[in-house]
Design brief:
The protein has helices at residues 14-22, 34-38, 49-57, 69-72, 78-82, 89-102, 112-126, 131-142, 152-157, 171-183. By secondary structure, it is mostly helical. The chain has two domains: 10-102, Fumarate Reductase Iron-sulfur Protein, Chain B, domain 2, CATH 1.10.1060.10; 112-182, no CATH class. Helix 1 (14-22) packs across helix 6 (89-102), helix 7 (112-126) packs antiparallel against helix 8 and helix 7 (112-126) crosses helix 10 (171-183). The two termini are 35 Å apart.
Length: 189
Amino acid sequence: MTITIRKTKKSDSLKEIVEQLSGADLSICLQCKKCSGGCPVGKQTLSRPSEIMRRLHLNAGNELLESDIIWTCVSCETCSARCPMGIEVAAIIDALRKLALERKASKQKGNVPLFNKAFLKTVEIFGRTYEIAMIAAYKLGTGKFMSDTEKFPTMLKKGKISLIPSLNGDRKIVRRIFKKTKENKGAKV
């Protein structure tokens, strides 16, 4: 696969914006590829974390916002934990995801954004995730109501899904976090 990197103007460099949003210094990356070696989704993507780091270091342009790993990343922070230089690689991927949304870059195929939205909405409402509501919202969004229904009884029996939401979380704190996030949505970092 051929990778084309278009250099951007220095004033609006994607690298500088990502560094500002993530608080990471990309210049200290050694390209040891430990971030990619531990990435649980790296083998399913065309671009691995180390490639993203290198392309940013080479002043890649907005084409990097089209990368599939931005939407496939599960934010497990394994890449950040494995980095010998202490770079928060997961924060860099988050910054790229934020920029991709702001700049309306084409979204990855699949329903990752829909899943994220369903997950966050249930956390906002219930103070923690509530699987039944999350699955319902996701199924409504995809229109595939009956897919995977044969797994439901087994998951219920094994205690992987609860019919009643847990009220152990502090809903007031979580709602305050969501409210503050919505207020700061347009704020510059």
